[in-house]
Input
Amino acid sequence: MSHPQNMYIHLKGLKFYAYHGVFDQEHRVGAEYSVDLRLKTDFSQAAETDELEGTVNYGEVFQAVKAEMMIPSKLLEHVAGRIAQRLLHDFPTVEEVRIAVYKQNPPMGADCQQTGVEATYQRKS
Output
């Protein structure tokens, strides 16, 4: 089997109810959030063997993201950074994390479906 140059695992539209925001009301009432992830990792072993040991366990990734989402923060930028660093720490085979965090119906005095941030973090060599 040929070996692809780049391999990515995607988790899109992870849903959470959390308490992030600058305003006190946001910490009391909370809001709906969604998270999209793209994890760069070599899963060629799993592609060949059909065994979980050769890839990243999606359920464990979700639990790590959930734990970080439950820690109230003022800024989505901070939340995204914490999640990415946690994933790079907890999953040594992940080389890169692209993360997007969105707040649904943000309290900004405008009709806006969602606001969010996106960043790409790479493992330091």
Notes: The first strand starts at residue 8 and ends at 18.
